[in-house]
Design brief:
alpha/beta, single chain, two-stranded antiparallel ribbon, ten-stranded mixed beta sheet
């Protein structure tokens, strides 16, 4: 089994070396859990290792995406200039001066097929190995009944072109699901990020719900968002409203 290492401290240890190649992973979580940071860190670590990537911006302006990356010391500009990174603007609809300077623009972000066409062009141009869609929930927010169909369509395309991909999915703070009816069956893997109050303190934690093609940790692990990105603690578990060291 070929694997794609996330490069996120602690994550690959939980996955026995990384995400199985060509898997499409649903990264699910509520607000403030670090989903976008996880996706950008996954992409940037690939770029550092010579693996090209594509980021589909459905919820933020591409300019803001670049600012977010730079906050953690991840400068995307050299990789964009070298043709190794493409940020697809599926947010602005091509409206605005900054949007007109973008190379990849989806003029109708609500049209999944238009988005896929632009995504495939970006993947082809960069020879992308990694893809992040942020967030896939935007594509079916007003029509939740098509959630599974949308994820299956993206999975078919992304697996078909040989990428290992993360589809970011939004859930409510108290929601137990993964961001849409049936999406858990459509994805090859599910990673759930949570932000919960434990004994008067907000704790971020992560659990791998499933990952096709590999054994993985079945425990909930705490993680932090640092100045250098996400750091997961594989030697700790969140259990019974406390964080304890594994023996």
């Amino acid at each position: 089994m070929k694997r794609v290492a996330t490069g996120i401290p602690g994550m690959d240890e939980l996955l026995n070396g990384g995400i199985p190649e060509r898997n499409v992973v649903l990264l699910s979580g509520g607000p403030g859990t670090g989903k976008t940071i996880f996706g950008l860190q996954f992409l940037y670590n690939g770029l550092k290792n010579g693996e090209s990537g594509v980021y589909i911006a459905l919820e933020e302006h591409p300019v803001q995406v670049r600012i977010n990356m730079s906050t953690f010391g991840w400068d995307p500009r050299p990789y964009e200039e070298q043709g190794k990174l493409a940020i697809v603007d599926a947010y602005t609809g091509g409206i605005g001066g900054a949007a007109r300077r973008e190379k990849y623009v989806v003029t109708d972000p609500e049209d999944v097929h238009s988005l896929i066409d632009e995504m495939k062009r970006a993947i082809s141009d960069t020879s992308a190995v990694r893809v992040v869609v942020d967030s896939v929930t935007t594509l079916y927010l007003t029509k939740p009944v098509v959630a599974r169909k949308t994820v299956l369509l993206l999975k078919k395309v992304l697996s078909g072109v040989g990428t290992t991909s993360i589809l970011i999915s939004q859930v409510g703070v108290t929601e137990r699901g993964f961001g849409g009816p049936g999406v858990e069956h459509a994805a090859d893997g599910i990673i759930r990020l949570d932000l919960d109050e434990w004994d008067g303190e907000l704790i971020r934690s992560l659990i791998i719900w499933k990952m096709r093609g590999t054994a993985h940790s079945m425990k909930r692990h705490p993680f932090e968002i640092t100045n250098n990105g996400i750091v997961i603690h594989p030697d700790k578990v969140v259990k019974r409203r406390s964080i304890i060291l594994e023996e």
